[in-house]
Structure formats: C-alpha cells, structure tokens
User: What shape does this take?
Amino acid sequence: MPGDINETMLEPVRRWLRDFERAMPRPDLKSAERLFHRDGYWRDLLAFTWHIQTVSGARNIVEALEIYAEGAEPSEFEIDANRTPPRLVIRAGMEIIEAIFTFKTAYGSANGILRLIQDGHGTPVAWTLLTALEDIKGFEETIGNTRPTGTSYSRDFQGPNWFDDRRMATAYADREPAVLVVGAGQAGLSIAARLTQLNVDTLVVDHEQRIGDNWRNRYHALSLHNQVHVNHFPYMPFPPNWPVYVPKDKLAGWFEAYAESMELNCWTNTEFSGGTYDRQAEKWSIELTLADGKSREMHPRHVIMATGASGIANRPDIPGLADFAAKIIHSSGYDEGSDWTDRNVLIFGTGTSGHDIAQDLYSHGANVTLVQRSPTMILNVEPSAQLPYALYGEGLPLEDSDLITTSMPFQLMRKSHQMITGQIKMLDRDLLDGLSRVGFRTDFGWDESGWQFKYLERGGGYYFNVGCSDLIVDGKIGLVQFADIDGIIAEGARMRNGDTLPADLIVLATGYKGQDYLVRILFGDDVADRVGPIWGFDPEQHELRNMFIRTGHPGLWFIAGSFAQCRIYSKYLGLQIKACEEGLIPLVRPP
Assistant: This one.
C-alpha cells in the first residue's frame, strides 16, 4: 500500500543511486540509458546545468548528461536519512517508489527526488529524476549555519545599536545595492530574504505607502482561497494558530513583520520609472522617485521584476463605455459595497475578483449582474480546490513537500491535474448543472488540465466557489453574456433584444496587462525583444518562460506566482544571482 516503508523499497533506490554515480564519469548510452524509463524525465534545478530545465526521453537524458556531468562532477549519492524515507506512492496515476537523496557536485551540495518504476523486464528504472542545487560551495546561506553575535553593539554603549545599523543599511547613503527588487509582494519579499541570507546587498522598492498594502488595500472581504499550510514564506512559517483561510489584513501585517524580522531593506512610496543598461559596466541606470518627491538614480547589477502581473489594469474595448454617465472602476480600485445598497451594478468578468466583488456587493444589498465574457472554470473551494494540495496535508515537513512538488515535470503534473479535473466534475456536479441551467458557461482548460494550468498559462480564468456561484444559480446575482450586449449607453447596458440593463456602477474585473507589456514600457523595445514572452510555457511545454532564470537580457530577472511558487523558486533564483555575483556563471545563459 502507498505509504509503506520496508527494505524492499530501500534497496532498489540504493542500487539505482550507486549505478547512476558509477555512470557519471562516462554517461554514455550503454552505461546510463538503461537506468531510465524509455519515456522518463530529468528535471534539473541548477545542480548540473545552472539552469531550470526538463529533459524527456531516456536517450535525450543521457545526451544531456554527456554535456553537463563532466563539469558538475556529481558524487556521493545517497538516500537522505534526515528526510522523509523512501515510500510507495501514486503520482499521475502510477504506483512508484519515491525517494529523497543527497549528493555533491563541483558547485556545491545538492538534493533530489528519484521515482522508480519497473520496466518491461521487472527492473526498477527512473521514471522521473530531480536534481537540485542546495548551496553553493563556499557561499552557503547564513541562516541555519551561524547566528550573528551582535557584539559590535551589544556591549559598546557609545557605538551604534542595531536600530542605527538598520537605518544606515536601508538608507543607501554611501553605496549602491547589487540587486534592486521591484515589488514588495510575496515574490519580492521572498527573493529579498533569500538574497540577504546569501549576503547579496538587496533593496526592495514599492509604490505603496506600507509593506503589505498590496493586500491591505484590496476589497474588504478578501481572504486567501487556498489553505494556510501551503502559503508560508521562506524561513518564517505562519504561526500555528492562524486560520485555515488567511484574511487579507492579517496577511498584510505579516508582510510588514516579515520584512522587519528578516532585516530586508525596503523603500515604500517609491516609484520605479524604468532604466537603461550599460553593457560595458554591466550595470543598470535606474530612476526612482522617492517619498519626498526627489529623484534617486541607482546603478544595480541586477533588477528583479517582482510585480506579479504588471499592475497595469487591463481595460477592454467595450463599445460605448465612454458614454456611461455614472462611475466606472477597475476591480483593483474596489473596496467594499456599503455605498451601493439598492443600486444597480454591472461587473464585467467572471474570474475570482468578479465573483468576490459581486458577492460582497450582494451582501450589502446591491442589485448585481455579472457579465460573462468567456467561459470560466468553477469549482467549490472545499474539497475540490484543495485537491492539488493533498501532499501538504500529509504531515510531511514543508521542505520535503516543496521538493516533491518541484520534482514533478510539468507534463506529468498536467496529467495529474487532468485526473483531478475528473474528480472535480463528479464532486461539483450539482453546482455545475445549476450554473449550466442559468446559462453560465464553464470550462476546465483547453486540455481539461484545470485551474492550476489556467493560472500558469494565462494567470486566471477560474473561481473557487465560496458562495457566489450558489447566488448565481438561485438568481440572486444576475448573469448576462457579453455577446448579448449591443453596447454601453449613459444609463447602463443596451441589450441586443432592445432592453436596457440599468447601472449606477460598472466594475471592470478584467485583470491586468502581462509582464511583457510592462517590460516594454519600462525598458524599451530592445530589452523587451531580447527577453521575449514571460509566463506561460515554452514550446516544449517543459518550463515557464523567463521565470526564475537568466533571461535573454543580462541582469534582468522575473519572479511571480503563488506563495508556494515564490517560496520554492526564490531559492533557485537567489542561487543564480549569487553565482553571477561570484563570477561562477555569466549574466546571460549561453545558447
């Protein structure tokens, strides 16, 4: 049964790791290809390649190992006795042995995940292999190794104390940061924490008044829609008394406390206006507008865009919108619905923000109608939306769950999510049938891979039902299709059948422009063309485009995603930047 542990599982793992290590000095087809399933996968996170990449197919894996193994000099492969032991599990519908192991390379210590499956002859072979760099030799993280003693100010009563040192460090009066991070959300704070522990001087800038305002200033009723145990920050997990679904103001306060506790250098109320790159000096010239209105030019070697979406509201071209006589707001400007009691509101967009705003307005007595522009995936917040996070509910250490999650190639993860979609359709059948009856159009992704791949491919297009869908089914919140609207007039929406749908407020819950758009505005066409598309998958569907890796432009990096993505991949982004700083790898990945 899955979860059982015995020597019959340990021995195949030990044997495979031993044979793999023996093959590394000469990773040719004869010695290494037999260790992998014909349709196996190798995902490497910097350990061999200094890149995040996936190779599929046994022969392709061996050819890649022939390129990278000599430089990496991998050795000392062994089961990690300090982590979750090898166990029998089911992944993507397959029963396999899954094991966490450690090894060393010329670059530093590393770890990985091995999944063994039997070939046609009953021999255990690698179905998937993850190899991940843990630390750079000689440049290990300070956390977990030695604590700072603080003697420079703990006994010197005339010298600066800790607070004085922090003020000086944050002011940057006499130095430039090596890294400038744009955005103080979960992405920006996560990578800043990682870089700080790698002794890379890092400054975070954000246009909001306070750290956490990106959550604090959102609509009144907002809470996270996935559970607390998935959403921790690096180094500092949430307190154990926190609720399962974290309220936005609680989260905002944690952002502020996290930045203080991790001693992150942050400038708020600071506008980032873009910049230019000096290839000879390998530095940026960045223009910042500070809280007092003054300008400051900085010259970091690296700029990390951690703005999530671009932050630029997407305002679709809706015929006649300019003729509307009342108020129009984007969802980013919505607070709460008490001002709209007994008034008519049209909401364009049926993603998460559209549904949440509609439910909030309804709870305040507004007459709400959702306008659906495209099909939307709907699933109940429990249990359906939590199914992809089942691993995090098994009681494993967070670090083990993160590594296991990271080890799954996207192609197999897609298969897992297609299976989860089948479960969701059964679990939520009554809700989906009810929505269909009132004309709500649902979908589950172009290949039925569900909400997580919708997120990775387009950043939205789904809603976890916390009650709004039931209100739609019951007719308490109205629904019209965008195709049935002829245009917007002063009084509201003119329908194609001649009716008028009155409105006192229009809310555009229509998302944001992509990062590509923002890069072009801030850095110009040349930089944007060198970087190329951001987010979504590469043509082989192996990895996300230009996320967490060296891009086509030196010194320009991107990080975004969920709390879990930012927690996991900030580690590997931080290691790459540290390696660049120490001259171990170039700023641009070789072709």
In short: The mean pLDDT is 93. The longest strand covers residues 94-104. Residues 112 and 539 are 26 Å apart (CA to CA). The two ends are 45 Å apart (CA to CA).
